[in-house]
Amino acid sequence: MSVLSHLRTRWRGRPPGADGWTLIEMLVVLSLIMILASLALTQYRNSIQTAKEATLRANLYHMREAIDQYYADKGRYPESLDTLVSERYLRAIPKDPMTDVPDWQTIQAESEPGASNLSPGIYEIKSASSAMGMDGTPYATW
Fold first, then answer.
1. What is the C-alpha R_g of the chain?
2. Looking at the DSSP assignment, which residues form a beta bridge with residue 132?
């Protein structure tokens, strides 16, 4: 056995022909992989939630803009969200990304004194979800 071979054996802690991994090496590698995978999964879930919240904000903004535009054009609020679609202020009622259905909480405007017996219409819209946002506020208050 040469000196170099002897030093290599002492440095590795294994005899010269014993290739492969020890159990400790495998456990350390698997532990590191699991830690990295859990960090990546947490980041992935947060990015999905952030995207849903951004979509919710955009949907609310566009529907509120359509309601305001309808009021500016007609002098009254729309009776329902379907009115906005039928009169082409919206192409379709978007889905609430938190509930995954186009079900929104609508708030009726107050009747003006001296107005006819028509319904006052919708002046505000909110999410129907009872969940909390990442900032700690309920989606129904956005």
1. 31
2. 138
Is 109 within a domain? Answer: yes
Question: In this structure, which amino acid lies at residue 112?
Answer: E
Tell me how far apart the alpha carbons of residues 123 and 78 are, in angstroms, rounded to a whole number.
Answer: 8
Query: Which residue, 82, 63, 65, 62, is CA-closest to 73?
Result: 65
Cα maximum dimension of the chain: 109
Q: Is residue 81 within 8 Å of 95, Cβ to Cβ?
A: no
Q: Show the domain range for 93.
A: 22-131
Residue 93 inside a domain? The answer is: yes
Do the Cβ atoms of 122 and 78 come closer than 8 Å? yes
DSSP designation for 140? G
pTM: 0.75
Q: Are 104 and 128 in contact (CB under 8 A)?
A: yes
CA pair distance 99, 101, nearest whole angstrom: 6
Q: Is-contact 126 60, C-beta < 8 A?
A: yes
Q: What confidence tier does 36 reach under pLDDT thresholds 50, 70, 90?
A: very high
Number of domains in the chain: 1
Tell whether 14 is covered by a domain: no
